[in-house]
């Protein structure tokens, strides 16, 4: 008898560049937009090609607007991967933008990304899991098929505290980043996909999956972080997370980042990011093993194909947006 078909899993990569990490951390020099895409992208594409996998790359519009990044970004599209929109300025406080600012941010990024890759994005992920009703409404009006910005975990405040260690941010800059990586309440958001209701429109939400029940992260950066203490334990953690997803019939959306494939031996700095002391060859080997573990249990696809499968299945829950709007932030935060 033929083996039963594997359930689907989605794999995506947020193509955050060197300058965007520096900007969030408050490091000088980010304004010149230093890039590591020429190092990271070929490395990532080679691993995905070796596995035989097509995923979704969320590209930052500012990178797409710069000629120096065109070859790397064009290579992603040429390899057949889906292209998504990751905002233009990559500001994790995008949820504080006014509706007009949100519209402009998404539209300008969209134009730059299409110009660099030849692909018009139909999926979006907010920087730092930033999301607002204005963002969802803009995406829906512009014909986007899905958003993938929610991160249902209780650990956002801990990640934010870690990120702030060693920074020299002003009180104003810290205020902008006050909701970086979300709050404790985000841990109560759904793990499974659902539709946001936006008047007469809807848009599908695909959360970045966390461990069912525990709501602990298991994106690749977290696996890399755990591997600092024990690579076998890190992979066991991932196997356990995937087993719990299978047990609860949760189709995971597994998230990657460029720094999961890079180390300080690449000479890029960003030493504050977890796991950067691991040489890049070891990180690439771990990344390949982790991705293959996902593929062992699931048929891994990009987010658009994942979206199409969900839409065809029917009976998807619908939720009302429950975010604070930009005016409330301006009133309460003085921004």
Q: Sketch the major β-sheet.
A: 5 strands, parallel
Average pLDDT, rounded to a whole number, is 91
The outline comes out as: globular
- Tell me which CATH architecture applies here: Alpha-Beta Barrel
Order of helices and strands: EHHEHHEHEHEHHEEHHEHEHEH
Low-confidence region ranges: 327-335
Radius of gyration computed on alpha carbons: 19 Å
Alpha plus pi helix count: 13
* CATH topology annotation: TIM Barrel
Taken as a percent bin, the fraction of beta residues is 5-15%
For CATH, the homologous superfamily is named as Glycoside hydrolase/deacetylase
Instruction: Tell how many strands the DSSP assignment holds.
Output: 10
Number of discrete domains: 1
Structural classification: alpha/beta
Salient structural properties:
alpha/beta; 10 strands; TIM Barrel; globular; disordered C terminus; 42% helix
